Amino acid sequence: MLGTLVRCSAKQDEIIRKIPQVLRDSKILDSFLIAKRLNIFLDICEEYKPPIPKKISQAVCDFVFKQSSSEHRELSVDHRNVLMEAFAHLVGCCPVDALDFLQAQMKEDSEYIRVGFLMHLKMIVGNDGPCESRNKKQPIVEAVKCLLDDHREGVRKALLRFIKELLCSQNVEGCPVWEMVVYIFSQFTVHISHPLGKDPAVEQKEKEERIQELCIDVLENLNTSAEGMSKALWPRLLFFVVPAPYTPTLTPLCRCLKEMALGREDDTTLFLGSCKGVGLPSAHGLVARLLVLASNPNQRGSWALQLLHALHCNIHTAITKLWAKQIPFLWEFFLSKAMTQAESTEIRSQEWEKQLLQFLRRTLETIDDNTWTQNLSRELESQMTSYAQQSPERRFLYKSLGIALTCCEDPAFVQSRMKHLIENTNYMEQLEREKIIQVLSFSAVGHLDLTLATLQEFGAGMGLKIKMSSIISRYKDYQQGRRGHVHQTLMLTYGKVALQAPKELLLPRVEADIMKNVFCYYRKSCQVLGVSIENKDSNLKLAFVESTTNICQAICETRDFQNFTLSCKKELLDILLDFIKDEPLDSLNTALRPQAITALAFLSKLKPCLAVEEIRSLLDQSIKSLFPLPSLEQLKETAGDALKTESLYSCSMDALGKLVTSIIEDHPTPELMVEMFQLIDPWFTVSDCSRERALQASSQTLTAFQENFQLPDGENFQQFGSLVAFLAPYTCDSSIRCRQWAAQCISCLLHIQAQSKVTAEEKEEMLAACHDLKGDVPSALFEASCRMAKVVSMHFPPDQALDFIEVILEDLVSGNEMCAISAGRWLLTILWDSGDAMGAQVSEILDIFYSRLPTIKQEDLRQVLVEAVSAVSHFHLDTVIESLFRRRLPMDSETGELWRSLGKDPSQALLILCKLAARVAEPSSLEAPFSSGSNESMEFADEGSLKATCAIYEVLSVLHTEEGIQEMFPELFCTLLQQVSQTLEKRMPFYEGRRRLFLREQHLSEGNPCRLSVASLKALVLKLISDPSLAEFGEVNIWTSLGDPRTHQEGASLLARHLFQNRLLDHKIIENALPWMTSESEKLRLTGTAFFSEAIRDPMLGERVRLKSILPLLMKRAGDHHLATRQMAIKGLANVLLVAADKVKQQKKTIVAIFLGTLYDSNVVLEGLRALALVFPHLNRQDVGFMFKDISTKTTTYLSDVDAEIREASFHLFGTLADLPKFRYRTFFAEQARKSLVPLLIHQWDPNPKVSEACRAAFLHSVPFLAKGKLRVHMEELYTASSLGLPNLRMHICKQLVNSHPEMRREFLKRTKAYFQSRWEEIQIRALELSGVILDCMVLTELDETLRLLLLASLDKLEEAPSHGVQVAASEVTAFLLKKWGGDLPKRRVAGRSRSSITQRSAPIWVQPSTITEVPSVEELFEQCIIAYETKTPPVRQAGETPVFVLIDSWVGNKKPGESVLEG
Hints:
The protein is mainly α. The strands form three sheets. A two-stranded antiparallel ribbon has the order 1-2. The N and C termini lie far apart (158 Å).
């Protein structure tokens, strides 16, 4: 509706006139609604352009800005936008009225109003939508121009924000943009006033910095593509490139200019230096400015380079093609360096500057205009103040100026500029001195002679004679340092000149014109008024060292330097070494140390060549000046500048690397590298920081050697093994830097050794391991180090194994725990991976291990050596075993530990046991008895067998598997049991000066090798038997018995019993042990016989087939000359009759005959008695036959034997004989029983309880043979039930016997009297009591004169016995005799006179040796039996021979033809 009315011309005036009223009503109505209606109205008015009176337009403007600027209420964003849109439409309708309104409002001096208007206008200008015609923004911008002189901070900021919106817009056609841009740059030239207030300068500076940051932001957002922008700014914007105040804006400025230059391709020619209203910079000024800016590879430098490229057509016509090619190349180089992170920033900057300087020189050479070059040099000089003093751009400008002078072909101009610079420089300023150095050094590239002449002239001017009045001034200059700075500058300049000079022109001038002057200025600096003083100025030393370094480097870069001889080399070396020696060892404050070492690096390459001692001195002094320094962290703490200290430290180590590299390049020999490591080696253990430096130096040495040394094909690097061993443990050092350096060393050594043979996978593995060494977890570090070791082992030369092991064992005992563990892992890895090829050195390697093992006390490190021996044994088992056998006995703890390590692998352990068993079973050489000066000889055990036996014990102690042991148990058991037998009663092998070493088992005595053998056998058996009774059997210890020569046979028997009880006695053991019984060795025959004497009880051996093999041997051994063997054979034969009587029916009589023969041998009578007592219950009368009489008769002779065991056995056998069932010799035995009545009675009180018990039992069994009928019953009842004492009991028994057999009274008395001389008091007393009982039953007529005399003599002697009980008993008997026959007895004195002779004649039979009948030995009897049986010829019997031959006669007579001994 409103639009229709406005379009009607008749209604337009009326509607427009009512607008003020509507605006006034907005106070009552909704103001936002009114604003929207007004916006619609003005939009329509802008389209149809109705005439609006100025008064009404002013009212609308007032309404809009009052609404938007109200302080009492806050408008919404939409409300404010509607108001600004309405005002924009008003500007389009009435631009003149709007401009007048804005200008009127801008005249208000209120900062608040101005800032508010600018804020609203910014919104209008920034909105390109409603402003499409040229005259819409122009009035607003023109109105704002009146505020450009307002210097209040708020207005300035508001203006800059307004300008930012304007320059960001898409259309600035017709707007005064240039004035706005000029206003931006003018903010960088504002003079900072000093108003009153606290610290006004600082506050004002901070305000201006904030304003300038806003200006830069405006320029960064400038839209160069906006319509009218390029036309308004190009090329006038170039004006701000060169002046120094606008330097902060150069980044966005260069961007804008570059974009505008590329956007105006039609304007190919730009006449720099003039522009309407603006003074444009010259081409020289732009080149100087932009090239210097581009030297810094940052964002500003990149835009400067791009702008330079965009202006290449406007600089000079001669360089259009050159720049079109070169600048894109530079840009690519710039981008590549910016993307490279591997290189340091300094290196990238140096390379970039070098490219730009080359670009500048080619440009000037292409222009080839001397005037243009001179103008450029002047422009560079004038722009020096445009850059900060320490900025890289300023340093590059000096170099650029030197290049400009180099390219200038006017010598007069060049010399004038050099003189001007050198004479007008403030030498007290570092940057000024650097200007001289850089400019003159780069100018020497094209004007070497001119530069040297200028320096010579200036230096000569300093030395001219002066008046005396000037001496004080000269001295003051010295004190202030100016003279020294001049000398330093000249020395540094000479060095840089030499470095930059054309190489083909340098050598003829270097000594006379350069080095000579450097020496001159150095000496002058050490003088005051011609007097030399000690110079402690580090800056002077630095200048001299740096100059020397540059000169020597320049010489080395020439083509013919190898033919050049530097005559002052010795003097230079001495000066540099003195400098290094004088440096403090507790701080690092100057660059003198690293620069001096660097100078030595270059100087060492020059002739005359250095001798070996001189090279060693250089390296040694350099190392001694660096390695003792405190750690880098400590140096930082004590230094003021931590970053500088870190840089100096890094440079120092790099300088050492350069020195090492330089020397190795000239002498790439292994001997030199060995010399280097000899110098480094002591520093590995001084401190942690010295170790780190030593590793870094090692890496530098090996890297240089890798690059300069070519190993001949087919050869190995001789130091590879030792160096790997030396450096590898440090891959697990506690310091991460040490680990990295050590890893680099290993990598270099690998490439030196293997060269091109290293595969890509191995390289990748080494890199991955090096990366993992950066961690902190010990297990991960060890794992990464082992991975490196595996790669190294692939290329390890076996012939260097000995060197490797000798060195790495030194690290194993070092104090560094991590390194020691790493050394152990490297050692084991190399041995496991490369041990197979080390056969030629295995013996020496093992000797090293053995010698080291006792010196290492830490258990885990000892275990490494033990495992190393185990690793070697997997490839060279025989060699390892032989080496262990070479160790002396007794086996020390280290040897035992080594054997145990070999046994931890079950598969290898079984193989080792087989070899050891074979070694034990080898026939031992008969050793001559050792005589120590006496007649007594000693027999020693075989050394080899004993060592193998001890080794078996150690291996078995760690072997936990039973399967393998079960397979080889028979062989191993027999071997060890045989060794036990062979070492009985032998001593340990003798060594001259042998030391007593601690043994693992306390009971393994040094002097008893048999116990060592027993220990091994015990370890073997206990692996398969867990029976606790295997150690103790009754009161007998099996293993103790085995090792004791006196009880060895008992132990062997008990061991055999346990074997068949645990089902371990198989046919292999029988087959291996059976030959022992026929061995020539008495001990082995004894062991075999004892073993089979018990083993025969095994049912498996009871088979007739096996019995046929064993029985003849037992029977033969029963006649062995060795006593113990005979005893065991008898025991074995008894066991045969017990367990297999039905299978040896034909041999029973022979066996019984053998038993009978033992009764005639006092040495084996005990075994015979026991055997007969054991087997008689299982024999029938046909098996015994007529031998019963001989057995009974012979048994009675031992009833009173002095040996308690024999007495016990004889009583036991006598009782057994009495208890046999009916047989035909009953009457005979009754007679024997009556004859043995006295022993049967007396020994019931034997001192030995066992004998007493056996005697009592035998007496009870014999009672039936002592009396008949009622008498026997009465005696049994009395003995078993009567409570009578012994005298009464015996009295009753004797009375009964005397009454039945009166003829035996005298015989009983004789037998009883024989016990009067017994050694036991109790027996004597009982004999006296029994004799009293017998005498009581006798009459005097039954005692003949001789018997009476003997009895009385014995009683008299007993009355004087030491025992009181015997005296009393004897007195009682004597009293009884006197009482009963006192008157009839002869005089006592008669007996007293002949008592001695009587006593001698009537001594008891059992104590007289002659009473034992002399008989042939059992062995002889047995062999006679065998011969007689086989030939069927009875042996010839002599009168009085033993009744055994009666059995032989009968046996031979019954033999069938062709029947064997066993079958008979």
